[in-house]
Specification:
With 187 residues, the chain is an all-alpha fold. 70% of the residues lie in helices and 0% in strands. It contains seven helices and no strands. Helix 1 runs antiparallel to helix 2, helix 3 runs antiparallel to helix 7 and helix 4 packs across helix 7. The chain starts with 5 loop residues before the first helix and ends in a 15-residue tail after the last helix. The model has no long low-confidence stretch (mean pLDDT 77).
Length: 187
């Protein structure tokens, strides 16, 4: 069986990030062991190795969370790709499945019903108690949902592209040496 599905890719990313986590812990452990037994006399070298280990650990942890919780770029694109009809369908499913959220929305947004106002349904909005006519909640929620989805999608794309830029910069400058450094230190 060839690995090509979403579950396989997700599991491979999780395994890779776990491997990075183990490497980072190994770096931190070896640096601490070397200084503890007096094998390394330079605190600067140990500090740099421990700092690299901690940085790699944090990056691997974030990568593991991203792999488990799905990919940020995909979620961002999905948020931006939803049209008005799809947003309405998504909101209607949420409306029909959660009574407590429905009551909170009706009370806070002062509306009744999803697409139409049914006088037989219970509504906690203040417009029912007064003589004012209540408007349906779908247009009000749709306006808020559209703004939120565009905001979340834009923020997600921004961070996704900064991650891609970071990977590119790492690849681009990975083998450069500091020209001010001692050339014999790299041998």
């Amino acid at each position: 069986m060839v690995c090509g599905g979403f579950a396989c890719s997700k599991n491979c990313l999780c395994a890779l990030n776990l491997l990075y986590t183990l490497v980072s812990l190994l770096l931190i452990g070896i640096a601490a062991w070397g200084i503890g037994f007096g094998l390394i006399s330079s605190l600067r070298v140990v500090g740099v190795v421990i700092a690299v280990g901690i940085f790699l650990f944090l990056i691997a942890l974030v990568g593991l969370i991203g792999a488990v919780k799905h990919h940020q770029f995909s979620v961002s694109c999905a948020c931006l790709a939803l049209n008005q009809e799809q947003q309405g369908q998504l909101l209607e499913v949420g409306w029909n499945n959660t009574a407590s959220a429905r009551n909170d929305i009706q009370r806070n947004l002062n509306c009744c019903g999803f697409r139409s106002v049914n006088p037989n349904d219970t509504c906690l909005a203040s417009c029912v108690k007064s003589d004012h006519s209540c408007s349906p909640c779908a247009p009000i929620i749709g306006e808020y949902a559209g703004e939120v989805l565009r905001f979340v999608g834009g923020i997600g794309l921004f961070f996704s592209f900064t991650e891609i830029l970071g990977v590119w910069l790492t690849y681009r400058y990975r083998n450069q040496k500091d020209p001010r450094a001692n050339p014999s230190a790299f041998l």
